[in-house]
């Protein structure tokens, strides 16, 4: 990675802190990912992406900027990448998945704030994220109260923050607000890029993002096989990379893995024995490098067959209708697709609970683990509803709350192991 040092220096990265971050990340990846047995060959591309996490892709972004393209950083799956592509800009998810500089973050947000929000501050304040530094605009959004209030402070630590308002109810008024906000965002994108959104450019954006979602949905559907062709950890990684890789290269790489997985299924080749307990994980998103819970689950005798999370099917299911011919119709189609996202910030949000039940059937899961980040109110409330609903249907469920530290690892492992034992009985 030394070939990127000059680029990082020019971006204002704290090289010493960054080096130690990359060292920790590299050794975690080795312990968690590279130790897995019988991984699909196609995962080599994703190993490369992680190895080059702050190198190759960041260099691509900087080169694109030199050619006049803009880079838009996002924190939420409600921000439509279709619009970003339509102005010839590039969207990158800002991961916020590690415990970095929480003390500094607590100068801006209360101590009892979820790890994800603190991490967004920590990465910026510690100057260790070249993606944040590569952005021309960062998009915040009014979702949970934690994020909504945190973005009031975030505007003071980043160069250019744009906040998108989002509805809280799935009503006609809510849909109207979402569409109006997407139009306002489109105008902002046009203003900063100088490019007008046309029916051709938006149609192209819709097709590129649909193709990316179709590829990852294809991969997810292959996990319904009785003999699982890919681990949950590897599937999660593809979902995480979804947010910052070049979209067309990503689509091709995921489709290549799917071809391989189909062969594995036909040859009855799996990553674990057929009687391994199958688990759906549902809850808060897991951004890179948050692999803690999946690693605990998959080293406790179980396997993850699906993620009901924004770094999973909640973020990628449903596509934008490609039949629209006017810009107005395209905005309607985009709004219709994103309005279906069943994030816990919506009230009521029964779709999410029903979706988890459907996933249990579809992926032949033996149980559900609900994952909440400490201090996350929306998902903590829904965890209680989910426990009630699933238990009423005799679906075993375990609800865990954790953060990005490693302090509760032992306790987490004990609880997960006990749950897996229960599934084996
Ligand atoms: S659409 S889940 S990506 S808002 S964990 S910050 S909810 S206190 S992340 Fe999310 Fe968009 Fe919804 Fe998805 Fe708040 Fe909870 Fe923290 Fe959270």
How is this structure best described in words?
It contains 19 helices and 8 strands. It has a domain at 2-199: Rossmann fold (3-Layer(aba) Sandwich), CATH 3.40.50.11890. The relative contact order is 0.12. Helix 10 (172-193) crosses helix 16, helix 11 runs parallel beside helix 13 (247-266) and helix 14 crosses helix 19 (409-424). Helix content is 53%, strand content 10%. It is globular and about 60 Å long. The chain has a 4-stranded parallel beta sheet, with helices on both faces. It is of the alpha/beta class and 425 residues long. The chain has helices at 5-11, 15-34, 43-51, 56-66, 81-86, 102-105, 115-125, 130-134, 145-154, 172-193, 199-222, 232-241, 247-266, 292-298, 313-316, 327-338, 350-362, 377-392, 409-424, and strands at 71-74, 90-93, 137-141, 161-164, 278-283, 303-308, 367-373, 397-402. Bound molecules: Double cubane cluster. The site of Double cubane cluster (BJ8) has 20 residues, from helix 7, helix 9 and helix 18.
Task: Compose a concise summary of this entry.
By secondary structure, this protein is of the alpha/beta class. The chain contains 19 helices and eight strands.
Q: Tell me the overall shape.
A: globular
Biggest sheet record: 4 strands, parallel
Quaternary state of this entry equals single chain
Number of strands: 8
Which strands sit side by side, in order, in the main sheet? 2-1-3-4
Strand content: 5-15%
Bound molecules: Double cubane cluster
Mean pLDDT: 97
Percent helix:
40-55%
Derived from helix and strand composition plus strand pairing, the structural class reads alpha/beta
User: Which CATH class of the domain at 2-199 is shown?
Assistant: Alpha Beta
């Amino acid at each position: 990675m030394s070939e990127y040092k000059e680029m990082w220096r020019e971006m204002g990265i704290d090289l010493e802190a960054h080096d130690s971050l990359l060292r920790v990340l590299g050794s975690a990846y080795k312990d968690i990912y590279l130790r897995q047995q019988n991984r699909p060959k196609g995962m080599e591309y994703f190993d490369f992406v992680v190895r080059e996490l702050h190198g190759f892709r960041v260099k691509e972004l900087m080169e694109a900027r030199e050619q006049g393209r803009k880079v838009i950083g996002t924190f939420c799956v409600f921000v439509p990448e279709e619009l970003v592509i339509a102005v010839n800009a590039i969207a990158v998810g800002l991961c916020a998945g590690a415990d970095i500089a929480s003390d500094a973050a607590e100068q801006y947000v209360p101590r009892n704030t979820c790890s994800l929000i603190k991490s967004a501050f920590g990465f910026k304040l510690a100057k260790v994220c070249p993606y944040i530094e590569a952005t021309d605009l960062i998009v915040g959004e009014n979702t949970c109260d934690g994020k909504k209030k945190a973005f009031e402070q975030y505007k003071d630590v980043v160069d250019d923050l744009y906040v998108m308002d989002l509805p809280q109810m799935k009503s006609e008024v809510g849909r109207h607000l979402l569409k109006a906000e997407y139009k306002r965002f489109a105008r902002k994108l046009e203003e900063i890029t100088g490019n007008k959104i046309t029916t051709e450019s938006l149609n192209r954006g819709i097709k590129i993002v649909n193709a990316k979602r179709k590829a990852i949905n294809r991969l997810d559907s292959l996990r319904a096989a009785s003999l699982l062709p890919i681990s949950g950890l590897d599937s999660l990684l593809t979902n995480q990379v979804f947010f910052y890789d070049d979209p067309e290269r990503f689509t091709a790489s995921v489709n290549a893995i799917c071809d391989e997985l189909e062969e594995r299924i036909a040859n009855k080749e799996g990553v674990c024995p057929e009687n391994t307990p199958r688990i759906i994980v549902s809850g808060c998103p897991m951004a890179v490098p948050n692999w803690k819970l999946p690693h605990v689950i998959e080293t406790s005798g179980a396997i993850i067959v699906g993620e009901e999370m924004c770094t999973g099917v909640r973020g990628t299911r449903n596509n934008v209708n490609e039949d629209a011919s006017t810009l107005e119709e395209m905005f309607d189609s985009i709004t219709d697709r994103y309005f279906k996202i069943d994030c816990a910030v919506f009230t009521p949000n029964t779709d999410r609970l029903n979706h988890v039940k459907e996933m249990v059937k579809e992926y032949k899961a033996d149980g559900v683990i609900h994952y909440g980040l400490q201090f996350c109110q929306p998902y903590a409330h829904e965890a209680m509803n989910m426990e009630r609903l699933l238990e009423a249907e005799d679906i075993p469920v375990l609800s865990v709350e954790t953060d990005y530290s490693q302090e509760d690892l032992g306790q987490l492992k004990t609880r997960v192991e006990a749950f897996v034992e229960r599934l084996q009985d």
